[in-house]
């Protein structure tokens, strides 16, 4: 099924911004989107798949290795050519068994030929791409443990009797969920680089526009996609340009100090928050074509980079974003043009 | 809802089932329900306890062994386009998420039938994705008439039906007026309006079609009704009514809202809202937990025998594919089946968990000791019967500028008594800090698989803020915010006012916590215990 164009999503700027930032710099480490039902969370993730630039990977390689010498030795299906393929966006279904996620013995070959062969799982497929978990707060605990382990190490290790396989598994974890269904474990929460809350727009005109576009899309997909292609293309180009820019963005000592001060003031645990803050700000600067990270970049992304890392206290979803904005004003001084 | 709208819904489902996602049928078993179900698209019947393997498919071991090659068996979701979920109110959030994902992928119609019990509704993750809502309250036997099938022409008409812009805008505005947040509501209404026009033999949607569509698709999603006063525990809808008046189709909107209102039997909205706001809150029975030795069986998982009981069948299934390989390397092994430690699978069960009752006791001011002895009495009587009811007890006391866990979760009466003995009182009322502590404890308890219940004993208002300053306004705001968070976590709460002249300030806090409020002056230990059990 063709996804809805990313650029045609009305509003939800925070969510779109967060996704674009991870597309620019995958090392930011994923996005968690929490919000009401029917606000377009999964639509946005699936739309992102259509927007992402292609990657170069060895033909037939189950882990999307970029070069021939990166192909793991257990792979026997890889070709010898490097081809373009779409950035993988892999769905992790809730009911997925552990075998399906990590990969397991290839039962067919075991039974018919008596061969020990590895059948790669979803983590292999998601390498160098995105792994999407809808209703992430309902994921079974043992799968969460497994994801945390792999996300931390960037490598999937399958050590079962008879099989000893390892392969790279670096992916951007995208989760979405409804806070009413339950809390996320703090460890998993911390693995997501950015977190955004989405809410449904409440004004009638915006809502009408949403329905209008959706309606046009359902009625004639081809025409709708054609109409939005220029926007999609320019968005894709902007991401590619920003990627090129990224290395050239300068990080001054002042910026580092700002990041540190913010994190200390917020009392966020660990250094991951600081690092994410910096990376996201750099990606934002690159996206805007700036040559150095400024305070306005930090301001724009501070809430999404930090709100889920505040020390777990009961205030933290009631107004964590607001708290961060208040702190930003305290640390950086009030914004000159408050209208912005 | 009348029989006519129910039968219209049935015909709409035939035409636009895949676009609408399906139907939520809320009705007790009755001839009307049977007649309607017979007229709906026929699909495979599934029940809420269906296993993932049956639903999503998986390897068919028996066939695999017989054929000597991997044979997978497709799940019901793959093989059937129409599914009927019976007893949908028993559907777990996990199953709802799996079904929801299938519905999102498109091409599926799900008919969720619940029993129409007052406070039992299917998970919102599911009802949200089902376009149509039909309830058969008030339909009597004489109303029943056969439902005529739809013909091919209707499908063609539906495919090219036009929804005029003003009608569509009115539908969206009506959904806003009804306090519907999700976009799935208006989308379903648009789609349903087209289908209704097509069923009627037209290719252009009229306002009457839209009104009928709103009745079928929006009524159950409504959180407020413009003319009614909103239920008290529901926040008012965001858009003020004057926002709608800029809209071109104001009149149309009003008519649609009115039509939707008509579709709602009195009391239904209240019960739906109640069920919804109950959300994650659990009763006092103890939440579900996996991994215990009793209860409903769950899919087995690999593990060491020390961690549980071996599931022989699953172990053999895991062993089967390896036999050829193992046989090749162990020629002389006399064992008929070569099982290795990694094959071992353990049984898992889904059981009810233990309850943790957390007393949060105000140790501030002069009446501290009286209150404390009250709590002590309650704790002792609870613990004395804890074994039978599987309750654990903890106590948090707050005074001065902070709160502390005085009795960590325990079932030991002796330990609790010893810890309570050394407690002194006095100072301010840091209510927010106490609630923070309580929320830590509830979280920890949940992680351990216990179900926390909160009992707050106090007689006054908060006067110490979270940052330990004595600021009454700030303290109240902090306490409210923490209370809201606790409510979101769905912790059942009992707020007990122990003041000799109970002040009314605690009642709002209790409603904020979503809990029960009780004014219990001293000496009512037995009543406190009765409330808890």
UniProtKB/TrEMBL annotation, chain A:
<comment type="function">
    <text>Involved in bacteriochlorophyll biosynthesis; introduces a magnesium ion into protoporphyrin IX to yield Mg-protoporphyrin IX.</text>
</comment>
<dbReference type="InterPro" id="IPR011775">
    <property type="entry name" value="Mg_chelatase_ATPase-isu"/>
</dbReference>
<protein>
    <recommendedName>
        <fullName>Mg-protoporphyrin IX chelatase</fullName>
        <ecNumber>6.6.1.1</ecNumber>
    </recommendedName>
</protein>
<dbReference type="InterPro" id="IPR041628">
    <property type="entry name" value="ChlI/MoxR_AAA_lid"/>
</dbReference>
<keyword id="KW-0602">Photosynthesis</keyword>
<comment type="similarity">
    <text>Belongs to the Mg-chelatase subunits D/I family.</text>
</comment>
<keyword id="KW-0067">ATP-binding</keyword>
<dbReference type="GO" id="GO:0015979">
    <property type="term" value="P:photosynthesis"/>
</dbReference>
<dbReference type="Pfam" id="PF17863">
    <property type="entry name" value="AAA_lid_2"/>
</dbReference>
<dbReference type="InterPro" id="IPR027417">
    <property type="entry name" value="P-loop_NTPase"/>
</dbReference>
<comment type="pathway">
    <text>Porphyrin-containing compound metabolism; bacteriochlorophyll biosynthesis.</text>
</comment>
<keyword id="KW-0547">Nucleotide-binding</keyword>
<dbReference type="GO" id="GO:0030494">
    <property type="term" value="P:bacteriochlorophyll biosynthetic process"/>
</dbReference>
<dbReference type="Pfam" id="PF01078">
    <property type="entry name" value="Mg_chelatase"/>
</dbReference>
<feature type="domain" description="AAA+ ATPase">
    <location>
        <begin position="27"/>
        <end position="202"/>
    </location>
</feature>
<keyword id="KW-0149">Chlorophyll biosynthesis</keyword>
<dbReference type="GO" id="GO:0005524">
    <property type="term" value="F:ATP binding"/>
</dbReference>
<dbReference type="InterPro" id="IPR000523">
    <property type="entry name" value="Mg_chelatse_chII-like_cat_dom"/>
</dbReference>
<dbReference type="GO" id="GO:0016851">
    <property type="term" value="F:magnesium chelatase activity"/>
</dbReference>
<dbReference type="InterPro" id="IPR003593">
    <property type="entry name" value="AAA+_ATPase"/>
</dbReference>
<keyword id="KW-0436">Ligase</keyword>
<keyword id="KW-0077">Bacteriochlorophyll biosynthesis</keyword>
Automatic annotation (TrEMBL), chain B:
<dbReference type="GO" id="GO:0016851">
    <property type="term" value="F:magnesium chelatase activity"/>
</dbReference>
<dbReference type="InterPro" id="IPR027417">
    <property type="entry name" value="P-loop_NTPase"/>
</dbReference>
<dbReference type="Pfam" id="PF17863">
    <property type="entry name" value="AAA_lid_2"/>
</dbReference>
<feature type="region of interest" description="Disordered">
    <location>
        <begin position="277"/>
        <end position="307"/>
    </location>
</feature>
<dbReference type="InterPro" id="IPR036465">
    <property type="entry name" value="vWFA_dom_sf"/>
</dbReference>
<dbReference type="Pfam" id="PF13519">
    <property type="entry name" value="VWA_2"/>
</dbReference>
<feature type="region of interest" description="Disordered">
    <location>
        <begin position="227"/>
        <end position="254"/>
    </location>
</feature>
<dbReference type="InterPro" id="IPR002035">
    <property type="entry name" value="VWF_A"/>
</dbReference>
<feature type="compositionally biased region" description="Pro residues">
    <location>
        <begin position="233"/>
        <end position="242"/>
    </location>
</feature>
<keyword id="KW-0436">Ligase</keyword>
<feature type="domain" description="VWFA">
    <location>
        <begin position="356"/>
        <end position="533"/>
    </location>
</feature>
<dbReference type="InterPro" id="IPR041628">
    <property type="entry name" value="ChlI/MoxR_AAA_lid"/>
</dbReference>
<protein>
    <submittedName>
        <fullName>Magnesium-chelatase 60 kDa subunit</fullName>
        <ecNumber>6.6.1.1</ecNumber>
    </submittedName>
</protein>
């Amino acid at each position: 099924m063709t996804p809805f164009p990313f650029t045609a999503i009305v509003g939800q700027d925070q969510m779109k911004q967060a996704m674009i930032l991870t597309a620019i710099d995958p090392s930011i480490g994923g996005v968690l989107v929490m919000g009401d039902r029917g606000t377009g969370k999964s639509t946005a993730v699936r739309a992102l798949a259509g927007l992402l630039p292609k990657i170069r990977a060895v033909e037939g390689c189950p882990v999307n290795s970029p070069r021939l010498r990166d192909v793991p030795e257990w792979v026997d299906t890889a070709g010898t050519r490097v081809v373009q393929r779409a950035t993988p966006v892999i769905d992790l279904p809730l009911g997925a068994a552990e075998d399906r996620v990590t990969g397991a013995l290839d039962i067919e070959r075991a039974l018919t030929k008596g061969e020990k062969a590895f059948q790669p799982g979803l983590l292999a497929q998601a390498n160098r791409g995105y792994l999407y978990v809808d209703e992430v707060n309902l994921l079974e605990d043992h799968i969460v443990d497994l994801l945390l382990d792999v996300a931390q190490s960037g490598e999937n290790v399958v050590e079962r009797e008879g099989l000893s396989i390892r392969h790279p598994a670096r992916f951007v974890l995208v989760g979405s969920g409804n806070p009413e269904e339950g809390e996320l474990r703090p460890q998993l929460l911390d693995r997501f680089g950015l977190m955004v809350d989405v809410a449904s727009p409440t004004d009638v005109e915006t809502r009408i526009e949403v329905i209008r576009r959706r309606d046009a899309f359902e009625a004639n997909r081809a025409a709708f996609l054609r109409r939005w292609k220029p926007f999609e293309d320019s968005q894709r180009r902007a991401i590619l340009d920003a990627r090129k820019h990224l290395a050239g963005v300068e990080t001054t000592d002042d910026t580092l100090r700002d990041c540190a001060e913010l994190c200390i003031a917020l009392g966020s645990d660990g250094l991951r928050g600081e690092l994410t803050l910096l990376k996201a700000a750099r990606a934002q600067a690159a996206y805007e074509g700036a040559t150095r990270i400024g305070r306005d970049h930090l301001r724009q992304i501070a809430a999404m980079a930090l709100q889920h890392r505040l020390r777990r206290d009961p205030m933290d979803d009631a107004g964590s974003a607001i708290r961060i904005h208040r702190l930003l004003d305290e640390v950086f001084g009030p914004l000159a043009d408050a209208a912005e | 809802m009348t029989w006519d709208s129910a039968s219209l819904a049935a015909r709409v489902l035939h035409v636009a089932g895949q676009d609408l996602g399906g139907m939520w049928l809320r009705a007790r078993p009755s001839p009307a329900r049977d007649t309607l179900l017979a007229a709906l698209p026929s699909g495979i019947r599934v029940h809420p306890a269906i296993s993932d393997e049956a639903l999503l498919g998986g390897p068919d071991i028996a066939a695999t062994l017989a054929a000597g090659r991997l044979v997978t068996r497709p799940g019901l979701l793959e093989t059937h386009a129409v599914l009927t979920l019976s007893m949908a109110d028993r559907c777990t959030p996990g199953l709802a998420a799996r079904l929801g994902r299938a519905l999102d992928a498109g091409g599926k119609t799900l008919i969720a039938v619940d029993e129409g019990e007052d406070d039992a509704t299917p998970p919102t993750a599911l009802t949200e994705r089902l376009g149509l809502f039909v309830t058969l309250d008030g339909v009597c036997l004489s109303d029943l008439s056969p439902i005529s099938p739809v013909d091919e022409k209707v499908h063609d008409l539906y495919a090219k039906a036009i929804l005029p812009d003003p009608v569509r805008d009115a539908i969206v505005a009506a959904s806003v007026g009804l306090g519907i947040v999700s976009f799935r509501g208006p989308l379903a209404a648009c789609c349903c309006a087209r289908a209704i026009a097509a069923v009627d033999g037209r290719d252009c949607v009229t306002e009457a079609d839209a009104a009928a569509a709103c009745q079928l698709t929006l009524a159950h999603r409504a959180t407020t009704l413009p003319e009614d006063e909103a239920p008290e525990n529901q926040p008012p809808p965001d858009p003020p009514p004057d926002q709608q008046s800029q809209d071109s189709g104001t009149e149309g909107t009003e008519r649609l809202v009115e039509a939707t209102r008509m579709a709602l039997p009195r009391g239904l909205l209240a019960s739906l809202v109640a069920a919804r706001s109950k959300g994650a809150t659990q009763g006092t029975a103890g939440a579900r937990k996996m991994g215990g030795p009793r209860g409903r069986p769950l899919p087995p998982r690999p593990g060491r025998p020390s961690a549980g009981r071996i599931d022989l069948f699953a172990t053999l299934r895991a062993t089967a594919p390896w036999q050829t390989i193992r046989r090749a390397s162990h020629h002389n092994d006399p064992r008929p089946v070569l099982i290795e430690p990694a094959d071992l699978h353990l049984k898992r069960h889904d059981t009810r968990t233990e309850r943790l009752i957390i007393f949060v006791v105000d140790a501030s001011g002069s009446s501290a000791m009286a209150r404390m002895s009250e709590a002590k009495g309650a704790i002792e009587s609870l613990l004395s019967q804890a074994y039978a009811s599987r309750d654990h007890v903890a106590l948090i006391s707050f005074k001065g500028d902070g709160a502390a866990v005085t009795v960590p979760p325990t079932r030991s009466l002796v330990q609790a008594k010893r810890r309570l003995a050394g407690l002194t009182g006095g100072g301010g009322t840091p209510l927010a800090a106490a609630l923070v502590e309580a929320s830590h404890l509830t979280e920890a308890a949940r992680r351990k698989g216990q179900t926390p219940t909160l009992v707050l004993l106090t007689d006054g208002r908060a006067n110490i803020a979270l940052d330990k300053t004595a600021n009454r306004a700030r303290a109240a705001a902090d306490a409210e915010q923490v209370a809201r968070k606790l409510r979101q976590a769905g912790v059942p709460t009992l707020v007990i006012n122990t003041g000799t002249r109970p002040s009314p300030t605690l009642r709002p806090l209790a409603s904020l916590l979503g809990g029960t409020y009780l004014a219990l002056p001293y000496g009512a230990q037995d009543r406190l215990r009765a409330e808890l059990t």
